[in-house]
Structure formats: structure tokens, C-alpha cells
Amino acid sequence: MKMLLHELHPSVVHAPLALLPTAAVADLIAVTSGDRAWAKVGRRLWIAGSLSGLFAGLAGLAASQEVKLDEPRARDMVFLHGLGNGFIMAGAVGVTLWRLRRPPSPGQVVLGLLANTAALYTATLGGKMVYELGVGINPMPVDAVSGTSKGPALLSKEAPRALVSDALQGVRWLFGRAKRLFAGTQPLEPGAQGFGPGYEGPSVGLEALSPKAPVPGPEVPRA
What we know:
Elements: H1 8-12, H2 14-33, H3 36-63, E1 67-69, H4 72-101, H5 106-131, E2 146-148, H6 159-183
Antiparallel strand pairs: 1-2
Helix pairs in contact: 2-3, 2-5, 3-4, 3-6, 4-5
């Protein structure tokens, strides 16, 4: 089975989710202990985490244009996921640039820990989109409101161009949706935050992901 382009994002997003918190913890140890070795480790982890996060963000922007988002709640949940991660990555890049020439400081450590705490929420939204709303799941029925639009295979010739063009389209969509939100012309759909009024939990039943079981017929008496 070929890996599709939109599946690149969930494949690479684990790198920044692991590297960035580890970088923040390394800086915390460096600040509290004064150990320069931990400061060096933290700086390298911030660089690796930011670079992997930027790539995961690029893949995520492209994926937002390659999945089916006919349900308004799921569409706005994807928007919140992307917007939140955009702010988090801006903070991570800022910390990385700071750490390139400076040792860790208490304020910078607090900022890094807060950014990683916020990432727990956006990561939770990512899980809810897939496991509860069916966003990006390939075997969804054709008439389902979520699923995938069957983008190009990851290793195909079309994939690099599609990655860039869909990511740019994803940026335009993200900024356009944010503009309408902050202007008050299009508020968030109820439940898009993943909790509260309007969030009913999973909307994808197991029957949508597996073949229908045969309907049992009348029992035939044994001879």
C-alpha cells in the first residue's frame, strides 16, 4: 500500500514533539545546575526541534488541503490545530535564535516550557481530528464528511510540487480563516476546540472503517 502525501505530517510530527520538550528540560537543568554541557545539549536540541517542527508544519499545511473537511466542526478544528502550532513554532524559532548566541536564562526556560505545554493541547486536537472525526483516514466511505481526497503518493514525481503548492494554499486558507475569525464575520463552530458545548465526541463509528458484517438469515433447522 502506497503512502500518500498527506500522511507525511503524522509521520514526521513526532520529532519536534520529542525534541522541543527535551530541549526545554535540558535548558532547565543547565539553569538550575550551571552545567555548561547541558546548555550545549539544549542549544543543539532547540536547533533540531525547530528544524523538524518547521518541516512538520510544512507537511501539515499541505495535508490540510488534501483531506476532506466537509464537516464545519472538523474544518475549524484543523484551523485551530494549525494556528496554535504556528504560534508555538514562532516561539520555538525565537528561542532557538536566542540560544544560538546566548546561554539559557530563567525567562527563556519558562517561555520554552509554556510553549511545550501549549503543544499538548494542539497535539490533542490532532488526535481528535483523526481518531474521533476521521480526518485523513483513507478507508472512509466516499460520501463521508471526513477522510481524504486521495492526494499523490509520497514517493511519486508529483509529490514535491504538490507539497509546496498545497502548503502555500494551506497558508492562504489559514490566514483567510483567521482574518474572518478575528473580524467577527465567521466565529468558530461549536465544539471546534475539542471540548465544551457542541462537542459530542466521536462522530465516526466502527462501521465506517470496516466492512459491513453480513446480515444473518433465518436459522436453517438441522437434519
